[in-house]
């Protein structure tokens, strides 16, 4: 495949770069170790790369492609689902009042609550070690984690804002927006560009992201792949 913008194939860019330590590799195929993430990519559409992807799925479970178009048909692998999405970036953030709650750094001891919150709210793929891909922050009410946001894929010069979610009983207080601002501003302060992905059908989330200063960069397709039966 011809070289392009790092975000055109964010998983490939991250797994060959700053997230190489989280990668599993077979020939020309890469995927995140399944304890960290589900995303995968191939270097090209050669027989060797496709066979490598098939081996990674067979050995380590389902994967997801998050690119502009669907991957080439892979012998031995079935498409489980496909859903349209958008990729968004921000060069700067809009201003906003300070949140009325402390935004806390989340640590290893918070992982059970992070997993429970992600399982309940389904912000996207989140596993037992996803929090190790970057920094995560949260809001607690009565000692209980009710909202969080953090970092995921890290292509050179870019960091993805991800894992954004709020418990249904605590929505409407601006926690998600405040956490996203914190995460995104830290990325900007490092001299990088924050980016994120959202399902195209989630118009409310996209509107929130636009209000924060994100703009749609391109359309993407979320394709889940599993071993054919």
TrEMBL record:
<feature type="domain" description="N-acetyltransferase">
    <location>
        <begin position="101"/>
        <end position="229"/>
    </location>
</feature>
<dbReference type="InterPro" id="IPR016181">
    <property type="entry name" value="Acyl_CoA_acyltransferase"/>
</dbReference>
<keyword id="KW-0808">Transferase</keyword>
<keyword id="KW-0012">Acyltransferase</keyword>
<dbReference type="InterPro" id="IPR013653">
    <property type="entry name" value="GCN5-like_dom"/>
</dbReference>
<dbReference type="Pfam" id="PF08445">
    <property type="entry name" value="FR47"/>
</dbReference>
<dbReference type="InterPro" id="IPR000182">
    <property type="entry name" value="GNAT_dom"/>
</dbReference>
<dbReference type="GO" id="GO:0016747">
    <property type="term" value="F:acyltransferase activity, transferring groups other than amino-acyl groups"/>
</dbReference>
<dbReference type="InterPro" id="IPR050680">
    <property type="entry name" value="YpeA/RimI_acetyltransf"/>
</dbReference>
<protein>
    <submittedName>
        <fullName>GNAT family N-acetyltransferase</fullName>
        <ecNumber>2.3.1.-</ecNumber>
    </submittedName>
</protein>
């Amino acid at each position: 495949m011809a070289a392009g913008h790092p975000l055109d194939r964010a998983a490939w860019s991250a797994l060959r770069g700053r997230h190489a330590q989280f990668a599993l590799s077979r020939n020309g195929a890469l995927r995140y170790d399944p304890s960290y993430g589900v995303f995968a990519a191939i270097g090209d559409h050669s027989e060797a790369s496709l066979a490598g992807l098939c081996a990674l799925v067979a050995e380590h479970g389902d994967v997801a492609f998050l690119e502009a178009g669907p991957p080439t048909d892979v012998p031995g692998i079935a498409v489980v689902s496909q859903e349209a999405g958008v990729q968004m970036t921000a060069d700067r953030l809009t201003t906003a009042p300070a949140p009325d709650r402390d935004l806390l750094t989340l640590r290893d001891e918070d992982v059970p609550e992070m997993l429970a919150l992600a399982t309940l709210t389904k912000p996207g793929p989140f596993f037992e070690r996803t929090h190790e891909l970057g920094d995560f922050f949260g809001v607690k009410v009565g000692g209980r984690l009710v909202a969080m946001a953090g970092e995921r894929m890290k292509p050179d010069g870019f960091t993805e804002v991800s894992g954004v979610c709020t418990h249904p009983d605590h929505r409407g207080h601006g926690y998600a927006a405040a956490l996203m601002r914190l995460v995104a501003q830290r990325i900007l302060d490092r001299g990088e560009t924050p980016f994120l992905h959202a399902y195209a059908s989630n118009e409310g989330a996209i509107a929130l992201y636009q209000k924060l200063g994100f703009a749609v960069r391109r359309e993407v397709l979320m394709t889940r792949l599993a071993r054919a039966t």
